[in-house]
Amino acid sequence: MSIDDVYVIGWGMTPFGRHEVPGTTLGAKAIRMAMESSALEYSEVDALYVGHVYGGMVAGERVGALAGLAGVPTVNVENACASGSSAIIEAAYGISSGRYDVVAVCGFEKLTDSGGMLAPADDDYEGRLGLVFPGWHAMRARLYMDAFGTTREDLAGVTVKNRTHGAMNPLAQFPNPVTLDDVLTSREIATPLRLLDCCPRGDGGASVILASKKYLEAARRRHGSVVKIAGAGLFSGRTDGTYSPLFEDITHRATEAAFSTSGVTRDDVKFAEVHDCFSIAEPFRVEGLGLCEQGTYFDHLKDGKWNVGGSLPVNPSGGLLSKGHPLGATGVAQICEVAWQFSGGAGERQIDGADVALTHTRGGSVPGTEGGSCAVIVCVSA
Amino acid sequence: MSIDDVYVIGWGMTPFGRHEVPGTTLGAKAIRMAMESSALEYSEVDALYVGHVYGGMVAGERVGALAGLAGVPTVNVENACASGSSAIIEAAYGISSGRYDVVAVCGFEKLTDSGGMLAPADDDYEGRLGLVFPGWHAMRARLYMDAFGTTREDLAGVTVKNRTHGAMNPLAQFPNPVTLDDVLTSREIATPLRLLDCCPRGDGGASVILASKKYLEAARRRHGSVVKIAGAGLFSGRTDGTYSPLFEDITHRATEAAFSTSGVTRDDVKFAEVHDCFSIAEPFRVEGLGLCEQGTYFDHLKDGKWNVGGSLPVNPSGGLLSKGHPLGATGVAQICEVAWQFSGGAGERQIDGADVALTHTRGGSVPGTEGGSCAVIVCVSA
Questions:
Q1: Sign of CA dihedral B124, B126, B131, B133
Q2: Residues of B in contact with A73 (CB under 8 A)
Q3: What is the pTM of this model?
Q4: Are the Cβ atoms of B57 and A53 closer than 8 angstroms?
Q5: What's the angle, vertex CA B42, arms to CA B342 and CA A252, rounded to 5?
Q6: Above 0.90 for ipTM, yes or no?
Q7: Whether the predicted pLDDT of B48 surpasses 90
């Protein structure tokens, strides 16, 4: 079903990184930024959707109360790394269907409080047997490298690109570029992946204000161009054996669904924000999105295609590898990046003429399946 | 906005109580029961919404994979004790808007693994200072008793009623009735509340299959009468000082919203399932729902009005006090009860001629506000 006339009329995010305040405070701070960006009154907000993983019971309502939105219908949405994107998609359908006119969406997470890696769930027997996220991505890296002749140096190029982009993003957790040598000499995490192949733990909040068409003209006057949520796809992973381990079935299905009623095609896409939780994840996702042929991501990487300044920048914000990855905030922050790009507010990393973009998040482990949740959103300038 | 042509065509729940399997297994078991009840093929399910509080990252996707629904769009919805109801409301709007034709909704929880009471969130400063759920309800009990001359014995009558109802429900956690004396001599928890004034911790899963109008005739042939989701209200609590502590503003607002486009009124209601997490909660909720005047709940209790067999039974299933309260499962189990009542499958506790019912859940603590989340659903026989 199409998403009709849903626009991002306000946006904002905290810096990603270590913060000494609760996650709900970060979420509320982001909402206040987005509300200020929207120029709406708080009384105009009909509902609040909040994406987070570890915020705890009714964390979204606590965020809302802190932000000045106590009393509105509030829903907490969790879909692992796709939590923020899922919240946006559910909110967008809420507006498209006429249920609401204005919905505030927030994603936040506080990860620096917890030590070590994200623990698998008690009933995630694959994770409990060792197939945690770094291990799973490492196995996929070996598969990909074997199949397509990718080298360890090639892989490091993903991190180098995204850290170069992130160095142009004042809100990024890692604001400094790195060299191939930095990546290749960082400590091993899960062979062949090294520390700089992995996104960091971090804290942060991001928020967007979605609204129906009657708010569009005022938003255009305020921002120039704004983001129209033109299409979205959200899926869980299919059962093992129904897909190739060398191609992201879940990403492909979500992308097909997102484009199906969007009015644009892959050829129209000017840039993408994709879920590069590990360096190897970016080629899998870019190929799953259909932005290049399977097995050709690295050819284009070497040509500079995915760079800011190239013909199809991927992760101009710095992506998860550089901007950071406070789980619930990530998908919302991607839409913030699209909003900055479309409105000409992306500073040094501005992509000229950007009018169509994709965002992609994916995450979570479900034994016996390709994985938890994947969300793809097609954004068109309005 | 109205909810149009959304029907409950299948339903099922596990017994509530202590279970030795993971919560996701309970959720999946409930889905399989509901699917069997619906007589649909699994391939006909368009999406899955799962309400839970403590299931962990992508627990809903794990439930889906176990149940045979791997691959479908899946959303985890959390709103404390209103998680299951919120999942139903979001799913119902998904169908009403034409986004989906068939949505499986599941609520589950596994609480017996955790010791002691539910811990307040780190940033719930009221909870951290001692205003945990039993304490909050105890304070409200004192207020209510002072205001309306309610006695400790009166209060015990709520538990006696609901335990009497639960003794007619083979899926209830507490299948045995209790006496006034049992309640009054149980150990003190938070004065004036005693152990039998408090709902138990428990595990369980519940599921309903929601579908659009094209599935109605087949469902009627199968079940006789089914539930139409005729209206719903979902709100977070307003800021302290904007409401009276003697009347549930959040419940009132959710009820008004639920009735506003439902085509029925309070006068049409034949029974209600309400959130009796503590004995004192039932009068507050019944009055907030507008089923009697403020301060008169106990007069009607003594007249037998709220009994199965009375003119307006409240919690025929046994409610949380007897059936149990596995958080995410509770709101979904309430709709299962309505489905059993409407289709004539409620056994000993059957309410003859039941054709309009209310369900109500409410929970979660948000400092500085009335509370987390409240969901009210108006059900009409179809």
A1: negative
A2: 234-236
A3: 0.98
A4: yes
A5: 130
A6: yes
A7: yes
